[in-house]
Design goal:
Number of helices of chain A: 10
Shape of chain A: elongated
CATH topology of chain A: Tetracycline Repressor, domain 2
Distance between the termini of chain A: 66 Å
Radius of gyration of chain A: 19 Å
Largest sheet of chain A: none
Largest interface: A-B, 40 and 40 residues
CATH superfamily of chain A: Tetracycline Repressor, domain 2
Order of helices and strands of chain A: HHHHHHHHHH
Number of domains of chain A: 1
Structural class of chain A: mainly alpha
Number of strands of chain A: 0
Oligomer: homodimer
Helix content of chain A: over 70%
Chain lengths: 214, 214
DNA sequence: CTGCTTTTTGCTCGCATGAGCAAAAGGTAG
DNA sequence: CTACCTTTTGCTCATGCGAGCAAAAAGCAG
């Protein structure tokens, strides 16, 4: 293993010392990985399949550009998170009240499914498939937790401002997360799944569930 | 391969011609499998781990009593389903109105988690880990679907009887399924998870979400 | 030479198989 | 009933085979 490759290892570092071509390769492989994971699931997403999807001759390429499967998965999660955040955040922050933001969160999540149909299935697969094993998994499990926590906090603030009714924010957020994931899973193997419609339905559902009782 | 063993193959058959010892062994192995799957996830639930959990000296034992991993997983799912049905059905059917039954469905599901903490995590793992591959998976994916469909039908009837408000039953049922699964997942790695409390919270949440708007 | 790519090789792990062994069940003859 | 033999049943162990990951070796371009 060459010295530079060890520079690729461990995501937390800067890792900015990358060639253009190397960055392009990594992006190409990550995209292929997302595709494969979404299609066949995390368990069956082998280097061989990913290489084939990326149009590479063999798995050596992946081993060269990534420190290992962990490194690749970390990149996959980071990429999906990055895209999702870029897409959803402005759409959420465009609204002022907590209920509107909650709705925007849900609907933009489903709208994102139209833009990048493979992203959400892939990340769900990786997160459920790794189970907190493998250094990287612990890392982005923590990332997911903070994301959930911030959502919980947002809901709690909405409650304190009297914009929501009375309920346990933690249960609510987990339920929401699970509901979205379940519909994402359904969308993967149902070709004519109307994401926008289901997004609206789910937003309505959680709107009713969180409304202040008059 | 002995003649009897081929009788073990393929679940759909009667397969009632089993010795006491054989039935006991299968049950023992299935229990161990449930335990292991719930603890380390489907992907890492190898014969080796299951054998160790069951106190067996080697994996050959498992291969002897089951036609393959498929056969074992089928049995795992069947066992969990059987227990869950026996537990939940009477608690649901004890109520008359659709909203009460929906609540009973949710709360009895969480109550079941106290009785058999490993069962629900295990089945979720198997169902998400197999992804419709492997003859058996398709089989109990179908079983799950019919279960979901019957729930959808129950909700639809409740709507027609004016006991629920207006919403898409399919979205609602998937959301509910996902919400339960998400909380099951959380319960697995959170030692002091109050299943009853979360069950009540979730039941409240879906009660508000499905109520007829006055 | 250096950076990048492809080919080749090594190693691990999980599942399945089949031979072989021990014990129980069953059958038969004295 | 008992002693012996045969068949069935339950289990262990060694081995094969395939898949997947990783890294080294070899080829190639700038």
């Amino acid at each position: 293993m060459r010295a530079k490759s060890s520079g690729n290892k461990q995501g937390p570092g800067p890792a900015a010392d990358r060639t253009f071509i190397e960055a392009a390769r990594r992006a190409q492989i990550v995209d292929a990985a997302i595709e494969v994971i979404a299609e066949v699931g995390y368990a069956k997403a082998s280097f061989t399949r990913i290489a084939r999807q990326a149009g590479l001759s063999s798995t050596g390429m992946i081993s060269y550009h990534f420190a290992g499967k962990d490194d690749l998965m970390r990149e996959v999660v980071a990429e999906v998170m990055r895209v999702a955040d870029a897409y959803m955040r402005p759409r959420i922050e465009a609204h002022a009240t907590a209920p509107e933001r909650l709705r925007a969160h849900i609907e933009s999540n489903f709208a994102l499914m139209n833009e990048h149909p493979k992203h959400l299935p892939a990340i769900v697969e990786v997160l459920t498939g790794t189970r907190g094993e493998s250094s990287s998994a612990r890392e982005f499990t923590a990332a997911t937790d903070t994301m959930m926590n911030s959502l919980v906090e947002a809901v709690r603030r909405g409650q304190e401002a009297g914009e929501f009714g009375e309920f346990d924010p933690v249960t609510m957020v987990y339920a929401l997360r699970g509901a979205i994931d379940a519909l994402v899973a359904r969308a993967t193997h149902d070709p004519d799944f109307d994401a926008a419609a289901h997004g609206r339905q789910l937003a309505d559902l959680f709107d009713r569930a969180t409304r202040r009782t008059p």
